[in-house]
Amino acid sequence: MVHSWRSHGEKIGFVPTMGNLHSGHLALVTEAKRRAQRVVVSIFVNPLQFGAGEDFEDYPRTLDADKQQLLEAGVDLLFAPTPEVVYPAGQAQQTRVEVPEISDVLCGASRPGHFVGVATVVCKLFNMVQPDLAVFGEKDFQQLMVIRRMVEDLCLPVDILGLKTVREEDGLAKSSRNGYLNEEQRQIAPQLFRIMQQTAQALAGGQRDFTRVESEAREKLLAAGFQPDYYVIRNADDLALPAEADPRLVILAAAHLGTTRLIDNLLVE
Ligand code: PAF
Q1: Do residues 73 and 50 share a domain?
Q2: What residues bind ATP, as annotated (predicted)?
Q3: Which of 80, 84, 131, 133 is deepest in the core (most CB within 10 A)?
């Protein structure tokens, strides 16, 4: 089908997802539709990117509701493979794609093997779907960076587009994992973004004592009821430690509320 579209000169846009779609995903679809004549969405909860003891089993699977939303959004094709289709020889036998260094820090340090799982599945999905372009959310800032690097290093003929994080009215970044939060945690959750906004304001105002700003923010997170995993300011182009003169910085955070791990980021340019 994709081959026939392409032979008619149509551009193929692709949105890879793990399903449980929300308006953040639909914004990716809208962007893909703006850029391409045909849009393919994949839904695959990728076991390779979950570590032992993570939420692979519990990850919300809502295929019927997702299908309905994609139909209404005018998506041309849904690709929802089973693990046997993606990993026919089993996960252990699967050739892997590893993007060194940036995969090992932050979320990669907290979730060893996570970005190998992401890079491997995205590479496979690109080869299966053969899109001209693919759209990802900037909420997963490090993931987007890993994917861009993989595409460049492996000369994959896919344009990668990043789309601004879609937020709830109170600032909480949209995420399928928000559904794990109980009422009390849901009230607390937006404070993550508020604290990041305060850090961004301090940086915009010329504050360059990064270590101090980071540790103040971590204390605020703890006081609000989070268990911070990391809260850092980095160079937005390569995730290196920030230098005073860096023109593009990014605040990256991951924090637990109960058993739910939330991530977010904020660019300061
Ligand atoms: O961001 C996600 O939903 C997943 O990590 C992705 C890119 C679909 C790969 O499984």
Answers
A1: yes
A2: 18-25, 137-140, 166, 174-177
A3: 131
